[in-house]
């Protein structure tokens, strides 16, 4: 997610801390449907296949463009 060609970290020029912050925000916005977990020092993005279909891209765009509406 951070350094591979075409990865979000590389495309948006994020530092490790910046990527972690963005993934923490995604976890909050999706109400943990997409989770950023740490198990024995291994950070992973996890999701439930059932819950992932409930995630609507529009909610992120609205949050980005109209943060006061949330």
Strands, total number: 2
The biggest beta sheet is recorded as: 2 strands, antiparallel
What count of structural domains? Answer: 1
Contiguous uncertain segments of 5+ residues: none
Shape: globular
| Cα Rg | 13 Å
Structural class: alpha+beta
Individual helix count: 4
- N- and C-termini, Cα separation: 27 Å
Please estimate the helix content: 40-55%
Mean pLDDT: 83
Order of helices and strands: HHEEHH
Strand content: 15-25%
Sum up the structure in keywords.
alpha+beta, 17% strand
Describe the 3D structure:
By secondary structure, this protein is of the alpha+beta class. 44% of the residues lie in helices and 17% in strands. It is built from 4 helices and 2 strands. Pfam families: DUF4007. InterPro entries: DUF4007 (IPR025248).
Topology:
Elements: H1 8-11, H2 16-29, E1 34-39, E2 42-47, H3 49-52, H4 57-65
Antiparallel strand pairs: 1-2
In short:
By secondary structure, this protein is of the alpha+beta class.
């Amino acid at each position: 997610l951070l350094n591979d060609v075409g990865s979000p970290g590389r495309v948006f020029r994020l530092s490790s801390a910046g990527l972690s912050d963005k993934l923490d925000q995604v976890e909050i916005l999706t109400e943990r449907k997409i989770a950023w977990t740490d198990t024995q020092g291994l950070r992973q993005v996890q999701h439930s296949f059932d819950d992932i279909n409930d995630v609507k891209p529009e909610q992120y765009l609205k949050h980005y463009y109209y943060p006061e509406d949330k």
